Amino acid sequence: MKKGMYFGLLLMLGFSLMSATCSSDDDDFDFDDDCGNCSIERLETVLSACSDWYIDDLERNNNNLDNNYIGYRFNFSIDNGVTVTWGNNTETGTWSVEESGNSIYVTFDIPGFDDINDTWRLDDIDNDDDDDDDDAFEVDFEIGDDDLEFENENCDF
């Protein structure tokens, strides 16, 4: 009886030690730990210093919408203005940043851009994306399961 109890305790201790050595980066789950290099200052600097951002990924309510924005270029200014150009068209709007707890939120307000206009949580600022072959700079946002990813191939940071 004692042998079985000791074996059970040893087994529980072993599982506890194994789970303590795994980080959330060791699995496929998102535990909001992706943005270790994120700050409001870094986000504002990256978005405003680089021109001609484009949408690489936009998913809302399980609908892939990035093809709707092919050829659209987003230019963010440090004074929280954003200009979108496509073809011979131009639209201007605003973007604002705030921090709440451990998260950074960005609100976009661009007339006619209802797919984008919302308050998004910053998920990542990355210039070395391991999940594809390009070297583009990326800024990723999310709202629950919805994703918005701006990309820029001419951004040197």
Report on this structure.
The chain has a 9-stranded antiparallel sheet. The protein is built from 2 helices and 9 strands, in the order ααβββββββββ. A hairpin with a 2-residue loop joins β1 (54-60) and β2. The protein is an alpha+beta fold. It has helices at residues 2-21, 40-49; strands spanning 54-60, 63-64, 73-76, 81-86, 89-100, 103-109, 118-126, 137-143, 146-152.
Strand content: 35-45%
Total separate domains: 1
Contiguous low-pLDDT stretches (5 residues minimum) are: 7-33
Name the overall outline: globular
Find the count of extended strands (DSSP E, 2+ residues).
9
Instruction: Write the CATH architecture name.
Output: Beta Barrel
Protein name: Lipoprotein
Signal peptide: 1-20
Keywords: Signal
Write the layout of secondary structure elements.
Blueprint: H1 2-21, H2 40-49, E1 54-60, E2 63-64, E3 73-76, E4 81-86, E5 89-100, E6 103-109, E7 118-126, E8 137-143, E9 146-152
Antiparallel strand pairs: 1-2, 1-9, 3-4, 4-5, 5-6, 6-7, 7-8, 8-9
Q: What is the compact description of this entry?
A:
With 157 residues, this protein is of the alpha+beta class.
Defining key terms:
signal; 2 helices; 9 strands; single chain; alpha+beta; Lipoprotein; globular; nine-stranded antiparallel sheet; 157 residues
